[in-house]
Amino acid sequence: MLLLAINLKGQDENERFGREIDRGAKLLEQGEYAEADKIFREVIKNMKVLPTNISYYFGKNSFYLEKYKQSINWLSKYMELSGTKGRFFDDAVLHFEKAQELYSVQREAELQYILDELSQETEIDCQDQDKVICPVCKGESVIIKEGKFGQEYITCPYSNQRGLLTCQEYNLLIKGELKPKTDR
Fold it and tell me: Burial letters for 111-122: b for 16+ Cβ neighbours within 10 Å, e otherwise?
């Protein structure tokens, strides 16, 4: 009798969580992503065994919250668990691919922001060298570009005739503050 009572309690709990997942799914479809997120997180936190559909809903909702890495992880789990026969498989693949693209763009932007911040605040120590190789012309003093009639050779607007910069010029260049030389 005790076993039956425990089983019924677990069944009641699963039904309640099932209703919560449905409520979260409805909010997701209505565009109420923050509210849906709260519900899905509560279910994930409290449910002992998660149904496959929660990974789909939470992954899709994460996509719309622009949490692309989280979206990728949860949608991937859904596709792994449900296989191609899963009810939401096609939509999961679509959102998964979009999340991957947007995550890549997001990471690139974050990295560029970090690099920009560092380059504005940081100076490269040239280790007592008077000159360093220009990263624009790679020490060649000319830049080779493909033109309409073949290769074009352009004198590097930043380095000296040997393709070198002073340490101060180099630091200005990486900050985007070195002006091209006009005396060439």
Answer: eeeeeeeebeee
HSE at residue 76, side-chain half, CA atoms within 13 A, is 10
The DSSP line for 44-76 is HHH-SS--HHHHHHHHHHHHHTT-HHHHHHHHH
Strands (E), the chain: 131-133, 142-147, 150-155, 164-166
* Separation in Å, CA 184 to CA 91, 141, 142, 154, 155: 58, 12, 12, 10, 8
- Contact status, residue 92 vs residue 60, Cβ threshold 8 Å: yes
pLDDT digits (tens, 9 = 90+) for 116-173: 665 555 666 777 778 888 888 888 888 877 777 777 888 888 888 888 888 888 878 8
Q: Is the pTM of this model over 0.70?
A: no
Q: Domains in the chain and their CATH numbers?
A: 2-99 (1.25.40), 131-174 (no CATH)
Res. 32 pLDDT band, cuts 50 70 90: very high
State the residue for tokens 């940081």.
Answer: 122
| Residue 180 and residue 158 in contact, taking contact as beta carbons nearer than 8 Å | yes
